[in-house]
Design goal:
By secondary structure, the protein is α/β, with parallel strands linked by helices. The protein folds into 2 domains: about 110 residues, Rossmann fold (3-Layer(aba) Sandwich), CATH 3.40.50.150; about 40 residues, no CATH class. The chain is about 55% helix and about 15% strand. Strands 1-2-3 form a 3-stranded parallel sheet, covered by helices on one side. Strand 1, helix 4 and strand 2 form a beta-alpha-beta unit. Helix 6 packs antiparallel against helix 7.
Length: about 150
C-alpha cells in the first residue's frame, strides 16, 4: 500500500496519537466478529451493521466475510470515519466481498452526524412553530446559543 494514500492510523505513531486512531488487528477483528455472530439470532433476511469509527474496515470486513456464508441474507453496512484515506481503504477492501452487500461509508464524524440527526428530528415540529411565530433569524440564534448549531 502506498504510504501517500494510507489511513492516518498507519503513517506514524505521532499522527496516530494526534488523531486518536487505533486500528483493530485482524486477529481481534476475527474474534469479535465470531463473538457477535455467536450471539446474533437473525429475525429477518436483512442485517444492518454500523461502525462509528471504521478505520481501514477490518472489523466490517471480518463480519462481511463471515456473513457471506449465510444464504439469502442481505447485508447493509454503514461506516463513518474522519480520515478520508481510511474511507478509501475500507471501501477498496469491502467492495470485493461477494453477496448481497450494500455499502454506505461516510467521511464524517459519527457524533456530529448523530447530533445533527437528533436535533433535526427533535426540533422539527418545534422549529416549524418557532419559525412561524418569530422568524428564521430568531430560531437560528436560539439554536446557536443553546446548542452551538
Amino acid at each position: 500500500m502506498d504510504i501517500a494514500v494510507q489511513p492516518i492510523g498507519y503513517t506514524s505513531l505521532n499522527e496516530r496519537k494526534s488523531s486518536g486512531s487505533h486500528y483493530t488487528p485482524k486477529d481481534l477483528s476475527d474474534f469479535v466478529a465470531d463473538e457477535i455472530l455467536r450471539y446474533w439470532h437473525p429475525t429477518n433476511d436483512t442485517v444492518r451493521i454500523m461502525d462509528p469509527a471504521l478505520g481501514d474496515g477490518e472489523l466490517l470486513l471480518a463480519l462481511a466475510q463471515k456473513l457471506n456464508n449465510r444464504p439469502n441474507l442481505k447485508v447493509q453496512i454503514t461506516g463513518f470515519d474522519t480520515d478520508h484515506y481510511a474511507i478509501d481503504t475500507a471501501l477498496a477492501r469491502l467492495k470485493d466481498i461477494k453477496g448481497d452487500i450494500e455499502l454506505s461509508l461516510e467521511n464524517n464524524d459519527f457524533l456530529d452526524y448523530s447530533l445533527s440527526q437528533f436535533t433535526e428530528t427533535l426540533f422539527s415540529s418545534a422549529r416549524s412553530n418557532l419559525v412561524k411565530q418569530f422568524g428564521k433569524i430568531f430560531f437560528k440564534t436560539l439554536m446557536f446559543s443553546m446548542y452551538g448549531i
